[in-house]
Task: inverse folding
């Protein structure tokens, strides 16, 4: 297991260096930061002075090494649009994105797993068929359309829930949260449902298919032959073995939720990192774009590593297989 962890850590470093190279290329080839910061009317002397202070007059390998060193410390320079440290901008927007993403992921799991189990165990009932038919909407409809429809129904027509913003938040010093206020919860409901719907249907259909496959296995037939109760067979044996692929998808989808919350945050004007990235693209704010790219890559790398480690917890046979392969 230790060799496996070290191997994955080395792979993670290689991935992050590759992403850092792509982010560095944004600085090199997407616009001229000197022109963006000083404008077209700047004198050659002021442009040369700023280029020297930013280190843009050095060779590309030196600039890349400095970029990686600064990025490892969380320093991506100043935002070209707002003139503030990029790390501070991301830190201010991170709580909103994390709360929205975690709420969406929990909603997808809490609703998707039980519905998947139910549709597998009662697959011929009319309710299970209706759930499967409804799940096609979550797979088929684009996220922005789902958000607009929810706003139209629950905000415009019914007036039950707010349509934009994060609501009232509480500043805890190191974190800002809307989960401690009623306004924050109301503002969270529609974006969380919008972001979770695709993940929910994915988890539902995955759990159903895996559950049906496991129920046909020989050890389930043997458990029935021993006279075990149906509840024990379904939830003590079948569901546990169903969770292995579910953990994989859930882990990867959590990274996807954080990365692709851009659409949901834009529709609901949710003040998270996704909305900050969209604004950075509109104004060619390269430092913010590069920092967002590196941060999302780091999220995916960490989640993949955690998912691999959870494999051995859920199914010890996988850990033994890796150990045997290593020897």
Result:
């Amino acid at each position: 297991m230790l060799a496996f962890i070290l191997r994955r850590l080395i792979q993670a470093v290689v991935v992050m260096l590759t992403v850092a190279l792509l982010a560095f290329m944004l600085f090199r080839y997407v616009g001229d930061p000197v022109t963006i910061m000083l404008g077209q009317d700047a004198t050659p002397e002021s442009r040369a002075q700023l280029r020297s202070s930013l280190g843009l007059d050095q060779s590309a390998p030196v600039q890349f090494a400095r970029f990686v060193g600064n990025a490892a410390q969380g320093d991506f320079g100043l935002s070209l649009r707002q003139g503030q440290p990029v790390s501070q901008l991301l830190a201010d927007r991170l709580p909103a994105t994390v709360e929205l993403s975690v709420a969406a992921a929990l909603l997808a799991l809490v609703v998707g797993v039980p519905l998947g189990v139910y549709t597998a165990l009662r697959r011929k009932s009319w309710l299970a068929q209706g759930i499967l038919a409804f799940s096609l909407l979550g797979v088929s409809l684009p996220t922005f359309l789902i958000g607009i429809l929810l706003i139209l129904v629950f905000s415009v027509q019914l007036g039950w829930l707010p349509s934009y913003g994060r609501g009232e938040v509480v500043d805890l010093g190191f974190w800002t949260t809307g989960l401690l206020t009623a306004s924050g919860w109301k503002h969270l409901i529609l974006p969380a449902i919008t972001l979770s719907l695709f993940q929910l249907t994915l988890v539902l259909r995955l759990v159903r298919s895996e559950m049906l496959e496991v129920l046909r296995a020989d050890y389930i037939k043997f458990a029935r032959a021993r006279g075990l109760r149906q509840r024990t067979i379904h939830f003590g044996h079948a569901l546990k073995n169903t969770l292995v692929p579910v953990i994989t998808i859930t882990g990867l989808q959590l990274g996807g939720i954080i990365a692709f919350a851009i659409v949901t945050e834009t529709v609901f004007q949710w003040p998270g990192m996704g909305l900050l990235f969209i604004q950075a693209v509109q104004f060619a704010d390269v430092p913010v774009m590069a920092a967002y790219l590196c941060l999302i890559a780091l999220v995916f790398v960490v989640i993949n590593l955690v998912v691999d480690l959870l494999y051995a917890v859920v199914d010890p046979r996988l850990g033994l297989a890796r150990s045997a392969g290593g020897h």
Summary: The first strand starts at residue 170 and ends at 171. Residues 93-326 form a domain with the MetI-like fold fold (CATH 1.10.3720.10). The chain has 14 helices and two strands. Residues 77 and 85 are 6 Å apart (CA to CA).
